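Subgroup meeting minutes
Present: P.N., E.W., G.H.
Scribe: E.W.

1. P.N. recapped why we're keeping a running log of single-chain structure predictions: easier to compare across weeks, and new members can see raw inputs and outputs side by side.
2. G.H. added today's entry (331 aa).
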Amino acid sequence: MTGIGIIGAGDFGAAHARAIKEVHGLQLVASCRGNNDALAGFTGEHGGRGYTDWRKLLDDKDVDAVLIASPHHLHAEMAIGAAEAGKHIMLEKPMAPTAAACDAINAAVAAGGVKLMVAHLMHFALPCMAARQMLEEGALGRPLIGSSWIIKLWMEHNRRDWHLRKATGGGMLLTAGIHALDRLVWLMDDDVVSVSAMLGAKFHEQEADDTALLGLRFAGGGLGQVQSVGYRNGATTYAMDLVCEQGTLRIDMDRGTMLGRDTVWTDLPGSFEPNWMHNALVREWTAMRDAIADDSSVPISGAYGRKIIGIIEAAFASNETRREHEIAGAC
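Output recorded in log:
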């Protein structure tokens, strides 16, 4: 049995706890949150010991692996601490607010000899998995043009002050828009070499962005665009289009995946599930369990997590200079 500790026992920590409960071979043994009352409520519902200091949780000998679901600016310190303590790590996105912080995490993980998986959930969501399988089968040829978007309510019940500030890794792009970016990069299956971006706070009075529009150039000649919008009032749209050499794909998280050929859309069988997010978390933890048990590679490495952050850093730089920004080290 692999003992799991949750650092960041908040709303999404609870979603992870519910998923962990369904994965054979995993057991939630400890959780950490600064607020004593909230922590007591969390452990009362999900079990395990409670800590208000994450360092004390890392000292717990029953904890073999940790989930880090804390504010973004704390990810690097906590992940490095976990690696030094010999704990395997599931690290919520974003991996860290900067590429330099990602590099420090990856160095600590390599030195500690532990597993690190960055929790990019789209890789385990059924509509995205169906699209990936379709692409791998090859009948559609290469994806050449991709558009991915998430347009949703920004001021949700779990929004905190740190989400609104740049220094703490806040903003819609790092918080939620990163899902749309990750999904596009993963399915295009190519390196991004440059970014052109416009960002701002268009709907709320805050320092960090609630809106971002990104244009991407891929190494193989493909083009992509990402919309990350946190509105004040509206309705959520969370979808993606891929235009391939021999057809099109549309991913809609509320409907499933559709194949477009000869001017007709058809649903891909088995690409929709009503509770997709919970099921994706279960798959994510199943993959983490297997990587630990088999001493095998994780599906989403720290190198990939760092790549996504490098793209976002380039987007921030492009917005500041109002010019297309090349990504250092990209192929």
